[in-house]
Amino acid sequence: MNGNKLDMCGIIGYIGNKKSKDIIVDGLKRLEYRGYDSAGISTFESNSISTTKCKGKIVDLENKIDEGKHLGKIGIGHTRWATHGEPNLINAHPHNDSLNKFSLIHNGIIENHSSLRIFLEEKGVQFSSDTDTEVLVQFISYLYQSENLSFFETVKLALKEVIGTYGILVMCSDEPDRIIAARQGSPLTIGIGKNENYLASDISAIINFTRNIFFLDDGEIVEITSNDYKIKHIDHDNEINKEIKKIEYSLEQIEKGDFNHFMLKEIHYQPDAIYDSFRGRILNDGRIKLGGIEDYYDKIINSSNIYITACGTSWHAAQIGSYIFEELMSKPVKVEYASEFRYRNTPIDKNSLLIAISQSGETADTLAAIEKAKNVGALTLGIVNVVGSSIARETACGIYMHAGHEIGVASTKAFTSQVSVLILMGLFIAQNKNKKKCLQIASQLKKVPQIIKRILTLDDEIYKISKKFVQVNNFLYLGRGYQFPVALEGALKLKEISYIHAEGYPAAEMKHGPIALIDNNMPVVFIVTKNRFNKVLSNIQEVKSRGGKIICISTILSKELDNLCDHLVFIKDVEDMHTFILPLLTTIPLQLLAYHIAVLKGCNVDQPRNLAKSVTVE
Ligand code: G6P
Fold first, then answer.
1. What predicted TM-score, i.e. pTM, was given to this entire model?
2. Longest CA pairwise span in the chain (Å)
């Protein structure tokens, strides 16, 4: 699969007495989970810059670095998920200027790269890649020649002209005893050693070498040698002092940050994960670009049958995806558990499309379903989080989710990223036919990260509700339309991590069975939106009259609803959001509810019993 990949790059730099390539390769391996379209390294060899890059994984880079090459003690290295340009060798970092005087690695996006490129081309600069990063290094080189400033002052000046996000490391062969680093929006950590210093996008890359670190803040630029450093802000000339912190805790604790569990961290990371899922894919004019499937556009829209297959949480996202596609494409879309689909007699053929959704990209049943589709010549499309995973490789085309590494076994940020990608894919397919509607939904999707930040502030309220339900044995989750798969997902989260039996149902189906379960001990979670609001209200009434305890997650406020609920979590100011968008919002309180109940019960939320993050057996 050939996704239109976004930026989740890893960067590392070393300056000291050791062979920098050993440290850089080790660090890059630790950063590899961020993605590995390509990798590269630059070191100083006899004061000139030597660069090696390759497409693929760090181990491919390692194999490519000849013995005898890259012996230098100062170097920078990069592992890339593509933003601008195809994931190929030419676009791999480091990028050097035409004179090979500067070498630069970059994590982020230079938004004004097009205008800078035009400016430089007019000055005669010839580019060898499509990347925004090469634009930056060529720009630095251009200013260096025209302004007669030091290396440090040149980089500082260049960054004043840059719009966008960056964490950069730069080397210059005129000053081969230093690295310059700067940050705007993308993280950068500096590790202090004895006669050696380290730079990295992620502390995990350098923690094995030093525990004394400080972080650069936005707008800061640092000049670093093996035994000294100087920090300034790009907008002024005063030196900035930073306190060096000693990292006492383990790598796992570092990765958890201020959160008690990975699951909680991942719940809180959702604004970023969703932003990353659409970053670079919603163009300035609101149209959707999905590089990994655009060559297959005709085949996708002309496919006679569409199947979506997945397992677990990904299956719930698939369900939402099927609703979106049916609404936008006006043709039936069938969702299949991969474990069922692989063995059933289904009329899938060479004109069919099989979409496989998977966080890990390794789920055995999903892989088998893909195999089956490929055997009959169907087009296969993967929506996958883990870059380079088996499903990503086995599918003909696809879209990466870019949710980042998910560690908690109970999937949270991967689910909402999957839904976000499915919305994007729906819009991508429909945008030529239904431009206005698609533009409106795309602009609403862009607002989702901010709205989720707001929803996360309801945490205390949800915690208080959770305390009332620690002792119960059963839960029922009910929702209609797009909120039915959300109900399924809410129930799955609770049962996975708290071991409380929970079921999700379409609200109106309650009368065909689950209603028999309702008594004074039965909590029922209703997910309420404007969709069939009055009908859901009647369902709530039915539960109320049988003594059930009612918890409502609602995007609508009404007096009647308020009177009926025992507990109401109100998500305000989202009434005008499209029904496609609402699952991204209503899911969040359900994740928090499950999380708090499980923690209060003393369960191991990150590693619940009997479950695995990646199920590679049948
Ligand atoms: C396991 C995990 C679930 C996940 C499911 C599908 O059961 O515990 O969280 O939803 O596998 O995994 P996938 O990686 O294919 O999305």
1. 0.72
2. 83
* Residue whose CA is at the smallest distance from ligand 1 atom 2: 613
Say how many Å lie between the CA of residue 186 and the centre of ligand 1.
29
| Strands (E) located in 9-89 | 10-15, 38-45, 48-55, 74-80
pLDDT in tens, 257-281: 789 999 999 999 999 999 999 998 9
pLDDT confidence of 5, banded at 50, 70, 90? very low
List, by residue number, the catalytic residues: 9, 613
360 CB within 6 A, ligand 1? yes
**What's the sign of the alpha-carbon dihedral 371, 374, 376, 381?**
positive
Burial bucket for residue 519 (CB in 10 Å: 0-12, 13-18, 19+): exposed
Q: What angle do the packed helices 413-430 and 312-329 form, to 10 degrees?
A: 20
Determine contact, residues 16/206, Cβ cutoff 8 Å. Answer: no
CA-to-CA dists, residue 541 to 138, 188, 195, angstroms = 67, 54, 72
Indicate which atom in ligand 1 lies nearest the CA of residue 410: 9
Q: Quick check: CB of 359 below 6 Å from ligand 1?
A: yes
DSSP classification of residue 286: S
Question: Which H/E stretch holds residue 528?
Answer: strand 523-528
192 CA distance to ligand 1 centroid (A)? 40
Neighbours of 177 (CB within 10 A): 13
- Type of residue at 544: K
Where does the pLDDT of residue 85 fall: very low under 50, low under 70, confident under 90, or very high at 90 and above? Answer: low
Contact 199, 248 (CB under 8 A): no
Q: What is the DSSP letter of 407?
A: -
Strands 95-96 and 74-80, bridge-based pairing: unpaired
Phi, psi of 494 (to 5 degrees): -65, -45
3-state SS, residue 554: strand
DSSP codes, 161-177: T--B-EEEEEEETTSTT
Question: CA–CA separation, 281 vs 424, rounded Å?
Answer: 8
Amino acid type, 445 = L
d(CA 203, CA 473): 42
pLDDT tens, position by position, 158-178: 999 999 889 999 999 999 999
SS3 506: strand
**Nearest of 432, 423, 434, 367 to residue 395 by alpha carbon:** 367
Span 23-34, average pLDDT? 82
Distance 390 CA to ligand 1 centre (A): 14
